Amino acid sequence: MSGTIDIETKDGVALLVMNRPEKKNALTDAMYHALADGMAAAEADGAVGAVLLAGAGGNFTTGNDIVDFLAAAKGGAGGRGVGRFLMAQVEGKKPLIAAVEGLAVGVGATTLFQCDLVYAAESASIRTPFVDLGLVPENGSSLLAPRLMGHARAFEMLALGEPFDARRAEAAGIVNRVVPAERLMETALAAARRLAAKPREALLATRAMLRPDPEAVKAVSLAESRAFAERLGSAEARAAFEGFLARKA
Length: 249
Ligand code: COA
Fold this sequence. Notes:
The chain is of the alpha/beta class and 249 residues long.
């Protein structure tokens, strides 16, 4: 299956780019594993002070590949990559930054709640169609989204499935700054480099203080994953996946 994670480490920043533009960077199991491996390598590399996630071709990511979801719904084993990627986010100690252009759907949206800084282009559209797909929130989002933007807006995104554009996301507090698309990467990279150049111990201690209950986030994320896996096997979810894949046929 197509799709890569392009990884470049430079100036103290590990840049991980989701690259499957023909599918709007929908994530396969192999891509999740590559993201998890890239984040683990960044954690272990003393030269790296920050991790930056981005997408190729004008979109962040449209989330989990629906073909893989359908295979899991039909009783397939399902890959372990997504779980590794989610745990890398929960357990990572280094600042995590996102540069978001275009679509950030599903795990592409919930990953933003795990980030320390999020920069967005005007084109950004952040959405979680979990309920429409017969699914439930994941990646700690049922805890993190209301914490970041309050119950009303979190419910609007996670349950109603309302897309948040860049300005709305900025106003809601889940995006730091909206910049023109042509300045997105330089803005995000500049912030990542500034963080990486700071005294490392003080930076990591400060980050840990600002994320006070990682064990609670991890527990919620794991509980959500169990509920999500159950929902994947539901008739509601299967019908939604088949509907998506049939819509262009
Ligand atoms: N899984 C599998 N394929 C996906 C995908 C996904 N998550 N997201 C996009 N694609 C594919 C489309 O099927 C299409 O493939 P094709 O050209 O072979 O037909 C291609 O990527 C381009 O996407 P398209 O649907 O034509 O773009 P759009 O701008 O009309 O719609 C979305 C964008 C995001 C609204 C739509 O692609 C979508 O709903 N994707 C599913 C998102 C999703 O539910 N993710 C899981 C969340 S838990």
